[in-house]
Each structure stands twice: as C-alpha cells, then as structure tokens.
C-alpha cells in the first residue's frame, strides 16, 4: 500500500509539474505583442529613424562637402572640409539606411498582401527616396539583390546607378497609380499627422514632387528621362504636385519623447562646439541681408564671421578665433526633419521652365521658392529680400540654384547632390585642401563591403574605375 501511495504521489507531482509548465508557456506569450502586423505598423518608427539618421550624418558630412560649415578639430584626421576623409565616414550612410530600407520593403510586402493600396504606395515612395539617398552618395550599390539575407544571400551584387534609377521611376509610377484618394490611411501617419483622405492626397503630391527632384537630377542622361519629365509636368491631374508648405514632406517634431528633433539630446559640443559656418556661406547670406541668417547663426561682436574652408592648420589663430556657429535653438527646432520642402519643388519648377521642359514663368516659381522657404522659417514678408540686387531673378540657372542651395539648409545631403549636379554655387579652395583640391564626387564604399562581399566589391570597383573619391557617379558623367 505504501508503495502504491508513493507511485500515486509521484504521478500527481508530475501532473502538477506539467500543469505549471503549461502555465509558464502561456505566460511566455506577450499579450501586447503583434502577431499579424499591418503595413501601417512599419511607417512611423522606420521613417523617424531614417530621417533622424540622415539628419545627424548630414550635419557633419553634407555641411562640409557643400561648404556650409567647417569642422574645427584640434586633433583627428577626419576633416571633411579639407577633403581629408577617414573610413568611418564611408560607413555612415550604409548599414543603418539599408536596415530601414528592409522595413520599407516589408511594409510594401504586407500592404500588397493585405490589399492596402495606400500603404503599398507609401512604401514604394519611401523605398525610392531612401535608395536614391544611398546611391547618390556612393554610386553603384546593391538594390535588386539586396536585403535577402533571410533567403541565404548575404553577398548581393552591385546594381549600376542607372539600373537603380530606372527602378526608382517604376516604383514612383506604381505609387502614383496605387493611391486611393477615397480612403483614409488605416493607421497613424507621422508625416501628415492625421488619418483623413486629404492626407493621402498629400502623400501622392509628395510622390510626384520626389519624381520631379530625381528626374531633374538625371535629365541630362538622355531622352528617356527628359520624356518622363515632360510627361510628369504636362499632366497635373494625373501627377499632382505640392501646393504649399503644408504639403511639404517634413517631420514637424513635437519634441515630446520619442518624437524629438534629431539633435534634441545631442551634446551642445557635438552640435555646434566644433563646427563653424564657412566664410563663403556666411558671406552669401550676409551680403543679401538674408532674414534667415539670425535664425541660424550666432553673432560675433556686432556681426557674423565665417571660418575659411581649408584654413591653414599650422596657424593657431584659426583654431582659437571666434566664428559664427549654429544657434542652440536649432537643436529643438520643430522644422529639422526635412525630406522635401515645397520650396525645393518650386526651384525645380523654375529650372524645368528655364530649360524648356514645361511652359511657364520661371521667375514666378523662383520667387515662390524663396517666399516658401522664408515662410517655413516664420518670416512672413519676403518683399525686401526678393528685391535685393543679388536675389532678383536674372534668368540664370546660377541664380536659381544659389537660392535653392540656401533653402536646402539642413535638408539631408541635398545641397551636396545639387552642387555636384549643377556646379553651383562654385566651391572655394583653401591652402590645406587634400585630394589635390578636387571636391569629392562620391564617398567610398565602407570597409565591410570589401571584407564581407569581396567578389562583388572587386567587380564594382573595377567597373567604375576604382573605389575612390574622384569617380563620378552616373548622373555626373
């Protein structure tokens, strides 16, 4: 009997233990976890992370390559304004953007699978935008073969930039066709901030404004792109564009965690302690009494002083002198999340009219671009500035790009892209410039590409004529 009681007790214990284990299995399931995510669940965080990363990187890299600012380092060997660039710079716009590109691609897959036309269209648009940023920095990069690690392909081939741009225009055309303007978005919208049908229209306008940006970037590459540009501009019903600043693609930060300016929690020293405005940028704004200057730059005495690009490193006075830098209020500016402003579209329209791609008055769009940029920064009266002798429209591409360059302040890498595309504004040289004084035409591939994707890296390096700063990207050739 005693033996039987022991057996019964053991069986009861085993049963009890099994029951406890089953209970623990149930506890392992997160009741708030998302088991069947919607396409909308990928938008806000991925877009915020992408814009934040690009903004932080561009604050150092674009600002120096476009000669907006000069990094006054007392030590170190990464002085981009001198074209002395170390390998860490090459990594910055590679791994993180590709991770977010994967999220946008998954958003597109889910949107297609779930029949959500609007989020599918948004995903196509954001994929096109982000891969354009990557390819315009490096040139030929992985795209069609990229992001397939889960399928066993961790060594993607590098597409030519032409192939990538051709895919971009397919994506943007599909997005434009997919938008359903009769239905609001099914989830939150970090960009246009409300789930109403009017915001789907704004997404569509952004999609077509992005097409305009990228078609203008490659318009010299042949009639195929010129014809696409003409078709876009000839049919505003099919391809609506932005109408005002409210249509602009900008993350208007609330500065309530986690939706804060990219520099909100960055140390003051990292934001403006070592980076000074360049002599040429300050000179351009000061000479025209640009009303944006006091909103962007600190004063030195009673005026503004810029640091010369490529200043003599051997002269200690440049390292200890006082120069205008970024005002700290910009760290908390709600308008530091630009993807594409309405003002940029208007400058693009002025250029397109000037080059004969569409009928119109280039002066009108040029002045719209300036006015929109001033309004964006809270300046309501543009009349005096528009009438300045060095601002008045004079029928030249140099004048259009000169004001567009200023309006693109802190808008990712767009200033550098435009300088390389148009040659305006003319870059200056300094006594301590490296790379034989030649402005970089691209950034080199990161070391990880050479180490972990060697065969494809070797192939692309041979194809483009060497992995160096002076190889022109496709649309520069």
- Helical stretch count? 19
Class of secondary structure makeup: mainly alpha
Fraction in beta strands = under 5%
Radius of gyration: 26 Å
Name the helix and strand elements from N-terminus to C-terminus, one letter apiece: HHEHHHHHHEHEHHHEHHHHHHH
Task: Give the CA-CA distance, first to last residue.
Answer: 95 Å
Query: What's the count of strands?
Result: 4
Strand order of the largest sheet: 1-3
How would you describe this structure in keywords?
globular; mainly alpha; 477 residues; two-stranded antiparallel ribbon; two-stranded antiparallel sheet
Give the arrangement of secondary structure elements.
Elements lengths: L1 H26 L15 H23 L3 E3 L15 H5 L3 H19 L3 H22 L22 H18 L18 H21 L5 H12 L14 E2 L17 H6 L1 E3 L1 H9 L5 H4 L20 H4 L17 E3 L1 H13 L7 H15 L6 H4 L10 H11 L6 H9 L24 H6 L1 H11 L13
Antiparallel strand pairs: 1-3, 2-4
Describe this structure in words.
The structure is a single chain. The chain has helices at 2-27, 43-65, 87-91, 95-113, 117-138, 161-178, 197-217, 223-234, 268-273, 279-287, 293-296, 317-320, 342-354, 362-376, 383-386, 397-407, 414-422, 447-452, 454-464; strands at residues 69-71, 249-250, 275-277, 338-340. With 477 residues, it is mostly helical. The strands form 2 sheets. A two-stranded antiparallel sheet has the order 1-3. A two-stranded antiparallel ribbon has the order 2-4. Helix 7 (197-217) packs across helix 13 (342-354) and helix 16 runs antiparallel to helix 17 (414-422). The protein is globular, with a radius of gyration of 26 Å.
